[in-house]
Amino acid sequence: xxxxxxxxYCETELNTNEKTTYEKTEHKKDLExxxxxxxxxxxxxxxxxxxxxxxxxxxxxxxxxxxxxREAENSEFxxxxxxxxxxxxxxxxxxxxxxxxxxxxxxxxxxLAQAAQEPPVKFNAYKTNEGASPVIGLIEQIxxxxxxxxxxxxxxxxxxxxxxEKFVQDSNSLIKDLGEQVTSKTKAIAAANGDKAQxxxxxxxxxxxxxxxxxxxxxxxxQCDFVLKNFDIRQxxxxxxxxxxxxxxxxxxxxx
Length: 256
Prior knowledge:
about 260 residues
């Protein structure tokens, strides 16, 4: 009876050990896969953070360059406008004097006054508007060209400023987005490192349990293998022994 109980104990313990070992082995595989996944995720996020920081730095440099370029362009624009307005001022004054002299007939009055004085040496009579129109027309054309150049420079300045402001706005939006990405992915790395640490701890614990299960299995085999391998033979021998005893008893009873 004790041997039967011991056999049942051995079978139960070995079966339980086998089942638990299988479960722990599968859990170990899952933990190893999870750790590998987390390591890949951390590496990927780290690369993305490095790329985002690089793009951030490049964008900030581009903004600085664009600002310097815009300042230089604006300075050139201010100089151009100032030069053209100065030119227009000088030419408009000259044009006004010419128009006063020719168009308002001041030249004719001067000629009459000279004739009345009867100088000792007479010059040819002065022709009032001779050569005036081409000079006035040329000056007016130069003034017109100057105003056109100023208008073109102003239109170019407005467009350049608008383009610059849009570039800065877009760049600042990109910088904000990249900064948020860096923050979010940094937090994700921290979380992944925490999960990895937990998984590594669980793996270490599971490996320890598997070692204990293996040692216990070895102990069970040392205790149970002989009984399990010879149980049927021993039971058969005992049965035969019991039958022989019974037969012997029957013979003895008959003799009496």
